[in-house]
Amino acid sequence: MSTYGDVPQTQSSSQTPGKATASLVLGIVGLVLIPIIPSILAIVFGNGAKREIDASGGSLGGRGLASAGVVLGWVALALWALFIIAVVAL
User: pLDDT digits over 14-70, tens only?
Assistant: First the structure.
């Protein structure tokens, strides 16, 4: 029994799937170091994590991490494609 002023312990933070974190890390690696393989994996893992989060009914968090990983993956691929086009054009 709690006394007045005690706050009941609740689970305020939801768990984040490993795919969401991996997507963000791979997106950063794809943007900074190695462009192609990590960027593609970031997109794949990010989309998989978003599907998993949506299917969890609110028990999983980390949708922002997954979305950021997907965006970074696409940005890295776009920059790599522009670089290849520039090299070929010259």
Answer: 799 999 999 999 999 999 998 899 999 999 999 999 999 999 988 899 999 999 999
Q: Which amino acid is at 88?
A: V
| Rounded distance between C-alpha atoms, residue 32 and residue 6, angstroms | 48
Q: Give pTM, 2 decimals.
A: 0.79
CA dist 58 and 52 (Å) reads 10
Beta bridge partners of 60: 15
